[in-house]
Design a protein that fits this description.
Number of domains: 1
Number of strands: 10
CATH class: Alpha Beta
Largest sheet: 10 strands, mixed
Length: 254
């Protein structure tokens, strides 16, 4: 009987065969091997499928790789597909050009298991910090070394913004899919804010992700003008569901 992995490391990709090796090599260095790598290819035509096939046959690959190709539908559809197909209890999005420190998964695992079992059902996941390839921290720091809170309080009360990285429970994400009837990009805040109304996150002041910014990401492939519908939806969601936070960040609301 095959035991399900703890983590599903999820990578959505679109024509990034020239960068995807960065993820693969970083995963090979992880000290925690209790994961699967799930790649959802959003319609690539650059030979990504052949590259993944080589990795799957490589004797040096010590973790399972699952590859799913779908017709181009943007990141929101790739994310929803990944959540649906995930075998792991914990879902960790990992962009197709980023790295992580070798103990990233181990650190995530330790912090998750340190939450008392009787309280774990109230938490959605664990979130850490990011740095650039030169070792400079990206985004605001958290106000404490360890903070049990939610993404709304962290954003509004503590003013923490910028790149962060963490996992979420797969069963929770299945309750909050991205809307697929919106053209173009749908801001992730629509999902994370909805989750924050019900679940806490453990925020840890540890750098775990090495973020590589790029203009050819799956998020903004194509004409940027197509993305206004998603941002309009997000703005409406903020005004409808987050007015209690207005006094902390009035400029943000305006």
């Amino acid at each position: 009987m095959i035991t399900a992995p703890l983590f599903t490391v999820f990578t959505p990709t679109y024509n990034r065969a020239h960068l995807l090796n960065r993820v693969y090599e970083s995963l090979k260095k992880q000290t925690c091997k209790d994961f699967e790598w799930l790649i959802v290819d959003d319609g690539s035509t650059d030979g990504t499928d052949n590259l993944v096939a080589v990795w799957k046959q490589d004797p040096g690959t010590d973790f399972p790789i699952r590859y799913i190709w779908q017709k181009n539908g943007h990141k929101k559809k790739a994310f929803n597909r990944g959540v649906k197909e995930a075998a792991g209890a914990l879902f960790l999005p990992w962009d197709s050009d980023d790295e992580a420190v070798p103990n990233a998964l181990e650190t995530f695992r330790q912090h998750w298991l340190s939450i008392p079992l009787q309280h774990r059902q109230d938490f959605v996941g664990v979130c850490g910090l990011c740095e650039d390839p030169n070792g400079k921290q990206i985004g605001d720091p958290f106000p404490a070394q360890l903070l049990d809170s939610d993404s709304l309080e962290v954003r509004y009360r503590y003013g923490v913004t910028g790149e962060k990285w963490g996992f979420s429970r797969t069963d929770v994400l299945r309750q909050y899919p991205f809307p697929e009837n919106i053209r173009g990009h749908v801001p992730e805040g629509i999902v994370w804010s909805a989750v924050a109304h019900r679940y806490q996150t453990r925020f840890i002041s540890e750098v775990l992700r090495i973020y590589h910014p790029a203009d050819d990401s799956i998020t903004f492939t194509g004409k940027r003008g197509r993305h206004f519908e998603g941002h309009h939806l997000w703005a409406n969601s903020i005004l409808d569901n987050e007015p209690d936070w207005f006094r902390f960040q009035p400029a943000w609301f305006f």
